[in-house]
Amino acid sequence: MNLSNYLVLSVLLFSIGATTVLVRRNAIIVFMGVELMLNAANLAFVTFARMHGDLTGQVVAFFVMVVAAAEVVVGLAIIVAIYRTRRSASVDDVNLLKS
Amino acid sequence: MTTMLHAGSVLAGIAEAGRTTTGEEVLFWILAPVMVLAALGLIFARRTVYAALSVILVMVSLAVLYVAQEAPFLGIVQVIVYTGAVMMLFLFVLMLVGVDVADTFADTLGAHRWVAALFGIGLGAVLISVVLRAADIAPQGLTAANEGGNPSGVARIIFGDYVITLQVVGILLITAAVGAIVLTHKERLVAKVGQRERADARIAAGEVLTPLPAPGVYARSNAMDVPALGPDGRPLEHSVSRVLRIRGQQRSVAEVHAHLDPGTGTGSTPPERTITGEEQVR
């Protein structure tokens, strides 16, 4: 099996995550789409590390995971804060600055 | 001579490691469709909890693939950080925000959904065409790099080449934690209502101060759904749980009385106050 199969899988997951971000309205699901994209990128990093015989790819994937954890904490806090004031978790309802 | 032989065997080992085994191929072709289907569930799931569960499935499968790809450290970190911490945090917030929040799949813009789908398919096509150019790279495998153990190799790079990055990431994590606390902090606008204030308010309102009477205890029925009898023999409506009353699941004294054998209806109740079931409810 060619290792590029892993890359194709990673691309598929990335595209599905990007489509989720565009299609869904629930802020939590949009956020999970972003997480899926980060994970897909991690799979590509790990595969490239194996292709090139260099562990740096795995280290970069590790840093991506750490930054994603920090991002999730802040993002979910924002969602909770918005939900408290607007009673909604839909990205369409956050339009106070409009007009 | 021996060194050259040694180098040759190492090269052969690397070439061996770069190729995938049959077991890994089978693993990949089982996991990959499952992962893609679960990821599609993120787009199409009506309920947010199902979407979260399918993402958890994708992430666990990714951890398995990492271990198969000679990255056991990342595989374990993936399980601990992503499935263990991040997705549990997602589920917490999901339950906090309310799982019954209606997720309107219908868009305000009708064409938006199709444009987004087109974008997704186009992005996938472009990226696949780019990624397939890497198909002819001869994979070298990580056998040499993982010689002292994969975690040790990763740690050598993290604490060797990327020390500054590690420090910055640490600062980032602390900032994120503080930011989350600040964002979810709520200023108290009114004084806290404690037990004492509640008791004072109840006395001031003139409500019942004692506990409510327990539901009925009879010779034939001591169930929750039958009202208790007062000292005067009349049923006490409010002794039955409010939930049962609202659901209409309570039984009246008359219903219980109908099941009683008329010859044995004495018990501890004096004859002149025998319950007939006709008593007025108060």
From TrEMBL, chain A:
InterPro entries per record: NADH_UbQ_OxRdtase_chain4L/K (IPR001133), NUOK/Mnh_C1-like (IPR039428)
Organism: Actinotalea fermentans
Compartments in which it is found: Cell membrane; Membrane
Name of the coding gene: nuoK
Lipid bilayer topology: Multi-pass membrane protein
Gene3D superfamilies per the UniProt record, alphabetical: 1.10.287.3510
Subunit structure: NDH-1 is composed of 14 different subunits. Subunits NuoA, H, J, K, L, M, N constitute the membrane sector of the complex.
GO annotation (BP), single: ATP synthesis coupled electron transport
Family the UniProt entry places it in: Belongs to the complex I subunit 4L family.
EC number: 7.1.1.-
PANTHER family: NADH DEHYDROGENASE SUBUNIT 4L-RELATED, NADH-UBIQUINONE OXIDOREDUCTASE SUBUNIT ND4L
HAMAP family tied to this protein: NDH1_NuoK (MF_01456)
UniProt-recorded name of the protein: NADH-quinone oxidoreductase subunit K
Pfam families: Oxidored_q2 (PF00420)
Domain of life, source organism: Bacteria
Residue ranges of the TM segments: 6-23, 28-48, 60-83
Keyword Transferase belongs to the record: no
Reaction equation(s) it catalyzes: a quinone + NADH + 5 H(+)(in) = a quinol + NAD(+) + 4 H(+)(out)
UniProtKB/TrEMBL annotation, chain B:
GO molecular function, one term: NADH dehydrogenase (ubiquinone) activity
Domain of life: Bacteria
Region (Disordered): 256-282
UniProtKB keywords: Cell membrane, Membrane, NAD, Quinone, Transmembrane, Transmembrane helix, Ubiquinone
Enzyme Commission number(s) of this protein: 7.1.1.-
Topology relative to the membrane: Multi-pass membrane protein
Entries under Pfam families matching the protein: Oxidored_q3 (PF00499)
InterPro entries the record matches: NADH_UbQ/plastoQ_OxRdtase_su6, Nuo/plastoQ_OxRdtase_6_NuoJ
UniProt-annotated location(s): Cell membrane
Record field: catalytic activity: a quinone + NADH + 5 H(+)(in) = a quinol + NAD(+) + 4 H(+)(out)
Residue spans crossing the bilayer: 27-45, 50-68, 80-102, 114-135, 155-183
UniProt GO cellular component terms: plasma membrane
Chief subcellular location: membrane
PANTHER family: NADH-QUINONE OXIDOREDUCTASE SUBUNIT J (PTHR33269:SF19), NADH-UBIQUINONE OXIDOREDUCTASE CHAIN 6 (PTHR33269)
Family: Belongs to the complex I subunit 6 family.
Protein task: NDH-1 shuttles electrons from NADH, via FMN and iron-sulfur (Fe-S) centers, to quinones in the respiratory chain. Couples the redox reaction to proton translocation (for every two electrons transferred, four hydrogen ions are translocated across the cytoplasmic membrane), and thus conserves the redox energy in a proton gradient.
Designated name of the protein: NADH-quinone oxidoreductase subunit J
Species of origin: Actinotalea fermentans
